[in-house]
Amino acid sequence: MLFCLLVVTPFQYYVMPRLGYTRCNILEGHPNIYFSDWVKNPDWCVRGKSREWVNEQARLGGSPELNP
Length: 68
Hints:
globular; 40% helix; 2 strands
C-alpha cells in the first residue's frame, strides 16, 4: 500500500495527462479524495454522472478512447 502512495500515485499524475486523460473527481460514486477517475474527453466529467454513463458516452460517440 505504501508503495502505491509513494510511487504509483505521482507516476499516475505525471503519465495520464500526457496520454490525453483529464482528472475527474466529481463523478457519482467517487470514493474519496485519494482516488481519481480519468476521462479522455473533459466534457464527460459531469457532476453526479456515473462511470457507466461516461462509458456510454464514449460508445455513442464511436470514440476510440474507450478502454473496457
